[in-house]
């Protein structure tokens, strides 16, 4: 009898053993989670105090204890941002790979783009043979483009050309010039405003052009400072009228590019590409809007509005966002092309509209084509209009 009971007890103990293992494993697992949560809380307090160093140390412990927690990795990236941008870039990439909650997705993508852009500035030397320099005045990078000749206008294999893109004609750029690697950024524009006290028409009159849900028109309260969506320092400045863009470039020691220079730059040295990039339009290559009812955001393009500069691959000349993000003002009046070849053309002698190039976050992909042109009243300051500067002298 006693033997029977002992066996019974043993059986019970054996039956309970796996449960006990699970229980204790769960307990130790939850202890680790609990400890990680504690480090996370302390890190949050440190960040509120502005002590990023302490936050990084606490969050490093948190991610070691809970390596599958995307939020810990993302918060670590935020804390690392100013201390170690490269480590921050790795952390935010890991966080995005693990899968963040929807509420953090766009902020994380923006952080990754900003860090990628910064990493580029730190490590990416000039693209082969091009040279690139930072202009002290506006803090922006400029690429040096070689002299050359290209076919301006509609490519024979492009079925989406408008009449104003014809005739395709040979254009010679006889001298090297410099052009912004990115669209002028919010940071650069802010530097100008701080230095000169400049106030844009949108600020003075209290409105800019934007979509109101039914039509595109005057929207009160909007300006480059607040275009109605979130802009960080590295986003392209928008809601800027033509003369304001031109004034900024003059202050920075340059000018707006001519339309021909813009297209030469957009083509990136490739004679046979319809877009500033190879192949077809894709949300992995540029920030643009819906394509006949297609998605607003897809692939790499997770932005409903502007994307930070450097979020997409550079073109053949090392230039960003020659397709999409913000439309770019050029120097020229809008007018039809002449028939013959031209050297350094500067567009129509006069006109009603200035030429915009490159498309934007809310336009379909057909305007991303390197030959696509758009003429607009130069006083319009729409939340999808930006610019980049060119210059003849090397940035100092
Ligand atoms: Ca652009």
What distinguishing features does this structure have?
4-stranded mixed sheet, 13% strand, alpha+beta, 396 residues, 9 helices, binds calcium ion, 2 domains, paralog of FGE (formylglycine-generating enzyme), Serine Threonine Protein Phosphatase 5, Tetratricopeptide repeat, 4-stranded antiparallel sheet
The gist of it:
The chain is of the alpha+beta class.
Q: Secondary structure elements and their pairing?
A:
Blueprint: H1 2-49, H2 52-65, H3 70-80, H4 85-98, H5 102-123, E1 132-134, E2 141-145, E3 148-152, E4 169-173, E5 177-180, H6 186-196, H7 201-205, E6 207-211, E7 216-220, H8 242-251, H9 259-267, E8 327-333, E9 342-343, E10 354-357, E11 374-376, E12 385-386, E13 390-391
Parallel strand pairs: 4-9, 8-12
Antiparallel strand pairs: 1-2, 2-5, 3-4, 5-13, 6-7, 8-10, 10-11
The chain binds calcium ion.
Residues 183, 321, 324-326, 328, 358 line the site of calcium ion (CA).
Q: Can you give a write-up of this model?
A:
- 36% of the residues lie in helices and 13% in strands.
- The protein contains 9 helices and 13 strands.
- It has 2 domains: 2-119, Tetratricopeptide repeat domain (Serine Threonine Protein Phosphatase 5, Tetratricopeptide repeat, Alpha Horseshoe), CATH 1.25.40.10; 133-391, paralog of FGE (formylglycine-generating enzyme) (Alpha-Beta Complex).
- Helix 1 runs antiparallel to helix 2 and helix 4 packs antiparallel against helix 5.
- Strands 1-2-5-13 form a 4-stranded antiparallel sheet, with no helix packed on it. The chain has a 4-stranded mixed sheet with strand order 11-10-8-12.
- The protein has helices spanning 2-49, 52-65, 70-80, 85-98, 102-123, 186-196, 201-205, 242-251, 259-267; strands at 132-134, 141-145, 148-152, 169-173, 177-180, 207-211, 216-220, 327-333, 342-343, 354-357, 374-376, 385-386, 390-391.
- The chain is of the alpha+beta class.
- The longest helix is centred in the first third of the chain and has 48 residues, at 2-49.
- Bound molecules: calcium ion (CA).
């Amino acid at each position: 009898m006693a033997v029977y009971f002992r066996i019974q007890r043993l059986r019970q103990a054996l039956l309970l053993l796996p449960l006990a293992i699970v229980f204790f494993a769960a307990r130790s697992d939850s202890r680790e989670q609990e400890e990680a949560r504690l480090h996370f809380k302390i890190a949050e307090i440190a960040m509120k105090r502005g002590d990023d160093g302490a936050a990084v140390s606490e969050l490093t412990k948190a991610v070691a204890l809970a390596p599958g927690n995307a939020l810990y990795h993302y918060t670590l990236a935020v804390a690392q941002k100013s201390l170690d941008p490269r480590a921050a870039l790795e952390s935010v990439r890991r966080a995005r790979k693990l899968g963040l909650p929807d509420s953090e997705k766009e902020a994380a993508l923006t952080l990754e783009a900003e860090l990628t852009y910064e990493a580029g500035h730190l490590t990416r030397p000039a693209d082969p043979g091009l040279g690139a320099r930072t202009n002290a005045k506006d803090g922006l990078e400029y690429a040096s483009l070689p002299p050359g000749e290209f076919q301006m206008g509609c490519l024979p294999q492009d079925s989406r050309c408008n009449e104003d893109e014809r005739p395709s004609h040979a254009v010679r750029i006889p001298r090297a010039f410099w052009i912004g690697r990115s669209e002028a950024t919010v940071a650069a524009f802010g530097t100008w405003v701080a230095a000169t006290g400049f106030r844009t028409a949108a600020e003075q009159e209290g409105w800019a052009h934007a979509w109101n849900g039914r039509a595109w028109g005057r929207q009160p309260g909007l300006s480059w400072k607040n275009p109605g969506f979130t802009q960080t320092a590295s986003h392209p400045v928008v809601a800027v009228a033509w003369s304001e863009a031109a004034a900024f470039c003059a202050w920075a020691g340059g000018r707006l590019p001519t339309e021909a220079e813009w297209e030469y730059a957009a083509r990136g040295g490739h004679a046979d590409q319809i877009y500033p990039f190879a192949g077809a339009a894709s949300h992995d290559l540029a920030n643009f809007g819906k394509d006949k009812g297609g998605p607003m955001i897809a692939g790499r393009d997770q932005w409903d509005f502007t994307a930070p500069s450097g979020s997409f691959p550079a073109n053949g000349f090392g230039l960003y966002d020659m397709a999409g993000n913000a439309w770019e003002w050029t120097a020229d009046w809008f007018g039809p092309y002449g028939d013959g070849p031209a050297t350094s053309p500067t567009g129509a002698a006069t006109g009603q509209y200035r030429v915009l190039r490159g498309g934007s976050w809310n336009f379909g992909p057909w305007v991303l084509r390197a030959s696509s042109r758009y003429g607009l009243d130069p006083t319009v300051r729409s939340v999808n209009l930006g610019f980049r500067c060119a210059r003849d002298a090397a940035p100092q």
